[in-house]
Amino acid sequence: MRMLLIHADQFEYEVTEKAVRDAEPLPDEPHKASLRDVLVCFCTVEEDDGVDPGLIVERASGEIRELAGKLGVDTVVVYPYAHLSSELADSSVAVPILKSLEDKLASDLRVARSPFGWYKRFLIRCKGHPLAESFRIISAAEGRAAVPEEIPSEYMILTPDGGEYDPRGYDFPPGEEEFKALVSKEALKRESLGGTPRLLGYCRKFSVDWEPFSDVGHMRYGPEASIMFDLIGQYSMNLVKSLGIPVFYVRGSNMFNLAEPPVLEHAKLFGDRLYELTVDNRRLVLRYAACHQQFSIVKDWTISYRNMPFGTFEIADSYRLEKRGELLLCFRVRKLHMPDLHVYCRDVEHAKELSMLIHTRIYEEIRKLGREYVSIYNMTRSFYRENKGFILRLLEVEGKPVLVNFVPEGRYYWVLNVEYTVIDEVGRPREIATFQIDVGNARRFGITYVDEDGSRRYPVIIHTALIGSIERYLFTLLDKAALDERRGVKPMLPLWVTPVQVRLIPTSQEYLDETLEICSRLMDSGIRADVDDRSLTVSRKIREAEVMWIPYIVVYGEKEKGEGTLSVRKRNGEKLRMRLEELTSEIKEQCRGYPTLAFPLPVKLSDRPVYR
Q1: Do both 423 and 522 map to the same domain?
Q2: Which pLDDT does position 262 carry in this prediction?
Q3: Which of 22, 126, 338, 386 could bond to 91 as cystine, CB 3.0-4.6 Å?
Q4: Same-domain check for residues 467 and 519
């Protein structure tokens, strides 16, 4: 807020006509005033004032009251004035701030406030003393800086048998090396040595990179990576369907107006990681996840207790202003894609039942990849005391200790937030998936349901992304390949998400047409296959296919034609003869339960540009 403060012998004003469409409503009688010996406060409310309006009002009223005391006046005018800044707040922000400022001053001063959004003619006669004219800039930044960034935490290790231990004295048994890495980093604040992960080279292999023409932290996906991205997205949708509850797919905007109170309240929870922009003098925030859009939609629904549980889902492009020095391809990025599911439950007990289903599914998915999570359970001490039995049921699924982080009472909108973390190739904890039991956002966004007794209640909402963001799931796949390579195993992706599942290599041009026919039959069966028809030696084509982690390399020539078989090299090193039907059956069996995608690339490699 900017304020021009004038001590006046005389001040008169009269409203003439509307200046903006959403001007503040006026009473029926003419709106005017005439005052003597008055402090006139010309106030310009700015966009940023909506971030912390209470602090703005507190500081502005303090400045006005202090100056009024020095001048010995007991009357002030709060006068909206649009000419002290070019970054104006709209009426939804400005009017509540001006009204609040009026109320704050009225506790010990006589206050007149002219209406917002109207042209007015005014007459002012300024006194001619040193304090008669002054200017103030009111900012919430100073006040926000006084709030500590670190939320106080108290850590405890909880074992499946209910044992509670101080992390500083816990004796980690063999097999808990990954959990030890988590505790060391999060509870004991010890950094691992780290290093350069193999992941970065793998990303280049599949044309995953940063976009240099954008802000830092934004990724781009080449042809192979786009296939992987689409498959992971479809898989996340299939998982949601498999939960056995009604789920409604929605879609909408990725930017929301900070002038809307629920948006602003929710945005405050994420501090300096919000991505903001200004359009038409409106301060907008890019969504952190799908919460804003899904809640904005559901608040308009008529919901009965009979409808619950149900979910809303969107693969939401989401934005987080991560620090430059912490950015990592596929893991810490500024634009991500979150398969965001919200499950609406009757109450906390109902949410706990659904949480067991979600928690179990999250663990099933990571174990399909041959990996394990180590978990952080964030909650208040009161929730832990009242729900320890439920927490231990969650630990039964994990089968190992978890790190509990006790947070201050009333600080968060959730009562339980579980972070599922892998320990990556270089020994660093990386959070992948999550779920939260949210008891605050239904009230914040005005989402209600009609209970069995006819009363209107706020649902409890579970937030989850069962496999994490698409980027972090891809990170998990590539990091698993890096761990395998470190152990001396050939790195590879799960067959269902591998961009090219079969590479066919004719021994000469003489067999190209027949190789293309084989490729066509594979593709008709839902298998992604291509043909290396380039003028290179067969051995070089095989080497290049191996570099690209192609799971099945098929060589076809005179011998194969004569025998009616295919010469197949598997990624695991096995070489064998197979009939086409056997190869097709084996691949389809390995991909059972996973999505397929029609091959979007030219079948012949000679038809593709060189893009690596």
Answers
A1: no
A2: 84
A3: 22
A4: no
pLDDT mean across residues, the chain? 92
> 192 lies in a domain?
yes
Same domain, 137 and 207: no
| 64 plus 103 within the same structural domain | yes
Token pair for 438: 């949210």
Distance CA 126, CA 134 (A): 12
**Does residue 459 sit in the same domain as residue 354?**
yes
Alpha-carbon gap, residue 306 to 278, rounded angstroms: 42
How many other CB atoms are there within 10 angstroms of residue 307's CB atom? 15
Residue with tokens 């670190």: 150
Residues 551, 421 share a domain? no
Strand partners of residue 417? 378, 436
Residue ending a domain, among 145, 172, 188, is 145
In a domain, 539, yes or no: yes
- pLDDT cut 90: percent of the chain above it: 76
Q: By the 8 A CB rule, do 340 and 249 touch?
A: no
> pLDDT tens across 15-49, in order?
988 888 888 888 766 678 899 999 999 999 988 88
Query: 221-256: string of b/e by CB count within 10 Å (b at 16+)?
Result: bebbbbbbbbbbbbbbbebbeebeeebeebeeebbb
The tokens describing 131, both together, are 């304090």
**Do 159 and 203 share a domain, yes or no?**
yes
Range of the domain at 311: 154-252+300-317+340-478
Cβ-proximal residues to 214 (8 Å cutoff; 6+ apart), any chain: none
Beta bridge partners of 435: 418, 464
CA distance linking residue 454 with residue 306, whole number of Å? 12
C-alpha to C-alpha distance for 5 and 134, rounded to whole angstroms = 5
- Which residue among 419, 444, 478 closes a domain? 478
Tell whether 454 and 346 lie within a shared domain: yes
What average pLDDT score do residues 495-518 get? 97
pLDDT at 151 (0 to 100): 59
* pLDDT digits 0-9 by tens, 133-179: 888 888 765 433 333 345 567 999 999 999 999 999 999 999 999 99
8 Å CB contact between 353 and 390: no
- Whether 161 and 52 have beta carbons less than 8 Å apart is answered as no
Amino acid letter, 5: L
Instruction: Give the orientation angle of helix 470-486 with respect to helix 223-241, to 10 degrees.
Output: 110
Structurally, how many domains does the chain consist of?
Answer: 3
* Pairing status of strand 566-570 against strand 552-556: antiparallel
User: Does residue 336 have a pLDDT over 80?
Assistant: yes
